[in-house]
Design brief:
The complex is a heterotrimer of chains A (608), B (284) and C (325). Helix content of chain A is 33%, strand content 24%. Chain B has one domain: MetI-like (MetI-like fold, Orthogonal Bundle), CATH 1.10.3720.10. Chain B has 11 helices and no strands. In chain B, 54% of the residues are buried. The chains are: A alpha/beta (608), B mainly alpha (284), C mainly alpha (325). Chain A binds chain B through residues 18, 331-333, 352, 355, 357, 360-361, 364-365, 367-369, 372-378, 386-387, 390, 436, 440, and chain B through 175-177, 179-180, 182-186, 195, 198-199, 281-282, 284.
Chain lengths: 608, 284, 325
């Protein structure tokens, strides 16, 4: 092999801790990238992957410094450059694509100003030449309106488009190396696929040398030639992508792979059919209430669902689809504008103040973000004792014993009881969060994205715990997630939400085979698979450009109309779609017949 | 009890040792003035009203370390007495303003809805009356007895405390642990005092310190204008006023009480800045 | 496209009108508060003003003059109408229309405020931005301690020290700033140097601190890190990326600091014997000349609301998210 283009040797990065003492957050990391190849740095939060990526630009975040090692790009020894040479390196020789484009674009400047800024700083091109090149890049990245998009401000374009615009910003100076730092993590899965496709296209076409930082093995499998697996600032394993995926050598890699392929945690054993929670024709939203009794901004519309006693219902949809609002309506935090909620046969008031203490006790909610869900001013003990005292009047020694039991139930050491939340890890906090819900001995637990803020391995352990608690305590769950593989792994029934409407629902097995609602089909087809070549193998039909028609539409039309590849002109844009029940038992909100849908569908039957 | 107290003293000492230089200076100044307010009048070498020197506007001498005033009274004694009055009035007003502002803010933020909106609107209006103006208007209408001065200063600075406390409470209110408490069925009082309040104590203590500084400056300013503490009582601001004609002779009697005020307020400011800088570092 | 830009302009205009309306409502509330406080006199105000020895006829005449025979609401209405038409009532002490008193004093105060603003704003913004750019370094830390101390110093200490140094010891400047017949630039300087110096002392510190905080807030944003990683130099990052985003908060900082002038000017005018509106108010408070107190308080509150409104408008117009929705 020729001299590699990028060579990192023995890199160590030190960070100052709160006490002023220094600790190494990256230890003795080495890797090399030949010209024109893509290398992935994979790891969970705290693995040092972003720190390493930034070292390729000679940049250490405030509080960090390079302690040892070399970073060589071509003939440049990056870590020995002075300030002036670093200005020339950054954005010229090496460029960077950040995780959140929404935050990385300056809100006060037009997109074009920012895309061509690099060429202005480095004086490589005239303004008009760089604008021409920018438009070419916009076109190559499949952005809508490539001529005009540059004159907009960042808040006027979507997140997926911004992410691609940032790629244009990085590529405009024709750098020798591009660093992509989790560039699709903040996107919805159906948007991510467009961005990945665009990235892959420009990177391959230009023969760009790139470093792709991610926590998601399936995404990396589509993008990278080689993978470096990191944890706690050290390299665990490195090799060709296919080798890492198929023949992992290190235990840590194996646990990552196992967590990325969730195993089913529920069985299809016969179950009771007494409904525990029933929701009928539920509507909810914010803003002024109109003449029809519905609020101005509708978040949920015409939602029906049933959770049998002891069962788990999964609710899936992208951000903003109303899934969190659904949990909050059931919990009483958001009042329903219309419809009915029944709990164990009794009507459940959706107004918080009309609920009885017993109703509160029997329904518990577990929020997504473990970092904000425990009051930092209280100890774990007082957090867990409160529901005991509040619902059952259990105090004193009995409460102390129960706290110990609860901690044991969620597999935490009893010694944690006298700590405060700030002293716990993310996974531990989420367990305490769960224990607090269990303290009420509820019948139904509303789980709102309980694993999405956690690393995959930690999240997998929480899912195991939820399944075990269900077996031993017989609780039911309303399980909300944006991740279809997680939902498939833990739920008996699944409901797909889109723009506040239920577009599809059915049992887990019914949701593993077509016909699907066109949105569910897109959603399922967009989840990257954990194998190389998946992205190239996708039929191009997935990437239907979003028709941007925001004209006023009659009420009740299909919410997916604008994006639907199977819409029937003259029908779908005139009439509200019927709710069809297919032989498999699933309900789909669509005009098209089942066989018709199945014929056009992207997905074939999925084996779980 | 004694063990407890020693524990506190060691903690205070450890706290001070961790501060940057400016913070230590602030700590020392605050400690000095706290002791002066507590013990000062009993340590004063002369009675507060006694004319003890023939020399008016006298300069620094061994007998009168801070000079003498326009009647020949001992400035050190007068400053020690004035400091107690200044600090006492300001402390009372600052406590009243912070407690009232915080209480209204937490309750209003927890209850929410139109009550919150109405209270917010009224406080917005009160904030747009500069506090010195509000104080002047109140003195014009009600007079300047010590009780009225405390009420005036408290009333002038309550809206400010409310605004800070409310923005803190609103931030805390949206956090998931408060939502979790609401979903558990907890009442307004529990949410306000057990869930929200403990998480705003530290910033509110810092704000209390700043408010104390504002009140000291306000009350001294009022006294300096002759609209605050009325003779024969004299706070530090009145001491500057009554000796102002000595300015042209360069008498210490003018500058010393003004310096006393500045050393108190600057000390509090330096201490608070160092303490809140420390706590934000720990949070990071 | 034309339609879209019209819609954009309409939304910006609506936002601006909203702010103006909000300011007007606040001003109305303020007037109610001030009226409530100033007319909430215990007992009979006329009797109190004239003393126990006054004849019943004189008391009755004064009551009528003060409008005390009417209901409080009617008096408030009449007072508001007067404010709106420029009729501010009659001074009890001077027995002349309040409007005349204000007309002679207000321009002087505005001039003092304007000179102070012209001097303080550039200095403060420079200190704030420089210390934000070098945050955490020695320069920033010393500036922090300096400004922190400056904001806590009472104006009369600065003023007395200034008089002591420049008027008593050095004899460069007169101790009083009566602001009568200013004929030359040097006279102007001699009159305004010390009052402006005193006012600037506190205001510069306050404004610099708020500016620093606003700029640092932006320097911590991820688009700033992005700009650094594009190879932008520190000055470029601070001035071209962070500063435009900090305009709204800085405008707010400037407005709040200048509004502090409204309070600080009370002490300064009185110490230097400067014939402005604040010293008029202090005299009125001393004499319990309520109509003058009311009028002056309303003028100060109006000035405050105007400053805040202007800052709000600057923030709206500088922000493309609010300009182009």
């Amino acid at each position: 092999m020729a001299q590699p283009h990028v060579q990192v040797t023995g890199l160590c990065v030190a960070a100052r801790g709160p006490g002023g003492s220094e600790a190494l957050i990256v230890r003795d990391v080495s890797f090399a990238i030949p010209k024109g190849q893509v290398l992935a740095l994979i790891g969970e939060s705290g693995s040092g992957k972003t720190t390493i990526a930034l070292s390729l630009l000679g940049y250490a975040r405030p509080g960090c410094r390079f302690a040892a090692g070399t970073v060589r790009i071509g003939s440049t020894d990056v870590l020995s450059l002075d300030d002036e040479e670093l200005y020339r390196l950054r954005g010229g020789q090496v460029s960077y694509i950040a995780q959140s484009a929404a935050a990385a674009f300056n809100p006060m400047k037009t997109i074009m100003d920012q895309v061509v800024e690099g060429t202005a700083i480095h004086g490589t091109l005239t303004r008009s030449a760089s604008e021409t090149r920018a438009v070419e890049l916009f076109r190559a990245l499949a952005l809508p309106d490539p001529e005009g998009i540059g004159s907009r401000y960042p808040h006027q374009v979507s997140g997926g488009q911004l992410q691609r615009l940032m790629a244009a910003m990085a590529l405009i100076t024709e750098p020798e190396l591009v660093v992509l730092d989790e560039p699709t993590t903040a996107l919805d899965v159906t948007t991510q696929i467009e961005v990945l496709r665009a990235f892959r296209h420009v990177v391959r076409e230009r023969g760009t040398t790139a470093v792709y930082v991610s926590h998601d093995l399936a995404v990396v499998a589509q993008m990278a030639d080689r993978i470096v697996v990191l944890s706690e600032g050290e390299v665990r394993e490195s090799g060709a992508t296919a080798d890492i995926l198929e023949r992992p050598r290190h235990d840590y890699t194996r646990s990552l792979l196992a967590a990325a392929r969730p195993k089913p945690r529920t069985t299809d054993e016969p179950r009771e059919d007494t409904p525990l929670l029933e929701v009928r024709d539920l509507g909810a939203g914010y803003g002024r209430v109109g003449a029809d009794g519905l609020p101005e901004i509708r978040v949920l519309d015409a939602i029906d669902l049933t959770i049998p006693r002891g069962a788990t219902l999964g609710v899936i949809g992208e951000s903003g689809c109303g899934k969190t609002t659904l949990a909050r309506v059931v919990a009483g935090l958001v009042p329903a504008a219309r419809g009915e909620v029944r709990f164990d046969g009794e009507p459940l008031p959706t107004n918080l103040h009309q609920r009885t203490k017993e109703q509160f006790r029997r329904i518990q909610i577990v929020f997504q973000n473990a970092d904000t869900v425990l009051n930092p001013a209280h100890t774990i003990r007082s957090i867990l004792e409160r529901p005991l005292a509040f619902y059952r009047g259990v105090t004193g020694e009995a409460a102390g014993r129960r706290v110990a039991e609860l901690l044991d139930l969620v597999k935490l050491p009893g010694s944690l009881a006298d700590r405060r939340p700030a002293e716990l890890s993310g996974g531990q906090k989420q367990r305490v969060n769960l224990a607090r819900a269990l303290a009420a001995e509820p019948d139904l637990i509303l789980c709102d994205e309980v694993t999405s803020a956690l690393d995959t391995v930690v999240g997998a352990a929480i899912l195991d715990l939820l399944a075990e608690l269900r077996r031993s305590l017989g609780v039911s769950y309303l399980f909300i997630s944006h991740d279809i593989s997680t939902v498939r792994a833990v739920c008996d029934d699944i409901l797909v939400l889109y723009a506040g409407r239920k577009v599809e629902s059915g049992s887990r097995s019914a949701l593993a085979a077509p016909p699907y609602h066109p949105y569910a089909d897109l959603l399922i087809a967009s989840v990257p698979e954990l194998r190389t070549g998946w992205l190239e193998g996708l039929p191009p039909r997935v990437t239907i450009p979003i028709a941007e028609t925001h004209a006023a539409q009659p009420a009740g039309l299909c919410p997916f109309l604008d994006r639907c590849p199977l819409r029937v002109p003259g029908l779908c844009d005139r009439l509200a779609p019927p709710r069809q029940r297919f032989p498999s038992g699933k309900e789909v909100l669509c005009h098209r017949e089942g066989e018709d849908l199945a014929r056009h569908q992207l997905n074939t039957a999925i084996t779980t | 009890m004694i063990a407890e107290r020693r524990h506190w003293a060691t903690r205070a000492w450890a706290l001070m040792k961790g501060l940057p230089l400016a913070g230590r200076i602030g700590f020392a100044l605050v400690l000095f003035w706290a002791l002066a307010a507590l013990l000062g009048p009993s340590l004063a070498p002369h009675p507060v009203g006694a004319v003890v020197a023939m020399d008016v506007y006298g300069t620094f001498t061994a007998a009168h370390p801070l000079g003498t005033d326009y009647l020949g009274r001992d400035m050190l004694s007068r400053i020690l007495h004035g400091a107690r009055l200044t600090i006492g009035l300001a402390l009372a007003a600052a406590v009243a303003a912070s407690v009232t502002g915080t209480t209204i803010a937490i309750l209003s933020a927890t209850i929410g809805g139109w009550i919150d909106e109405g209270v917010g609107r009224l406080m917005d209006a009160l904030i747009s009356i500069p506090s010195k103006m509000l104080a002047l208007v109140m003195v014009a209408s009600f007079g300047a007895s010590p009780t009225l001065l405390i009420l005036t200063a408290a009333f002038s600075y309550t809206p400010g405390a409310f605004r800070i406390a409310r923005s803190l409470a609103i931030n805390v209110r949206t956090l998931d642990y408060v939502q979790a408490a609401r979903a558990r069925g907890e009442g307004t009082g529990y949410i306000a005092w057990v869930e929200i309040f403990p998480n705003m104590v530290n910033p509110m203590l810092a704000d209390f310190g700043l408010r104390f500084v504002f009140v000291v400056l306000l009350l001294s300013g009022m006294s300096f204008l002759g609209l605050g503490v009325q003779p024969p009582d004299a706070d530090l601001g009145s001491l500057v006023r009554e000796n102002i004609s000595g300015l042209f002779e360069g008498a210490p009697a003018v500058v010393m009480p003004a310096l006393a005020i500045a050393s108190l307020t600057v000390g509090v400011n330096l201490l608070i800045d160092a303490l809140s800088g420390r706590s934000s570092q720990v949070e990071q | 496209m034309a339609e879209a830009s019209r819609a954009i302009r309409a939304s910006a205009v609506r936002l601006v009108l909203n702010r103006v309306a909000y300011g007007a409502v606040t001003l109305l509330l303020v007037s109610a508060v001030i009226f409530l406080i100033t007319s909430w006199l215990p007992g009979d105000a006329a009797q109190e003003l004239l003393g126990q020895s006054a004849t019943p006829e004189a008391v009755a005449a004064l009551r009528e003059k003060l409008g005390l025979d009417r209901s409080p609401l009617a008096r408030y209405g009449a007072w508001l109408r007067g404010l709106a038409t420029g009729d501010l009532g009659v001074s009890l002490a001077a027995n002349t229309p309040v409007a005349d008193l204000v007309a002679t004093r207000l321009p002087k105060s505005l001039l003092l405020a304007a000179v102070t603003a012209v001097v303080s704003v550039p200095i403060a913004l420079t200190i704030g931005i420089v210390s934000a750019m070098w945050r955490g370094r020695r320069l920033d830390r010393s500036l922090n301690v300096a400004t922190l101390s400056m904001v806590a110093v009472p104006e009369f200490l600065i003023a007395t020290i200034a008089v002591l140094v420049f008027a008593v010891k050095l004899r460069w400047l007169p101790a009083l700033s009566n602001a009568v017949d200013i004929g030359s630039a040097s006279q102007f300087f001699r009159t305004y140097a010390m009052p402006v110096l005193t006012l600037c002392f506190v205001i510069v510190a306050q404004m610099a601190r708020m500016t620093r905080a606003a700029v640092i807030d932006q320097l911590n944003a991820s688009y700033v890190e992005m700009a650094v990683l594009k190879g932008a130099r520190p000055a470029h990052v601070a001035l071209r990326h962070a500063l435009p985003n900090a305009i709204g908060p800085i405008a707010n900082a400037v407005a709040l600091s200048l509004s502090y002038l409204l309070g600080g000017v009370v002490i300064v005018e009185s110490i230097f014997n400067y014939p402005g509106i604040a010293s008029l108010m202090v005299d009125a408070v001393t004499n319990r000349d309520i109509p003058v107190v009311q009028a002056c308080a309303m003028i100060f509150c109006f000035a405050y609301l105007l400053l805040v409104l202007v800052a709000d408008l600057v923030a709206i117009l500088s922000n493309p998210r609010l300009r182009h929705r």
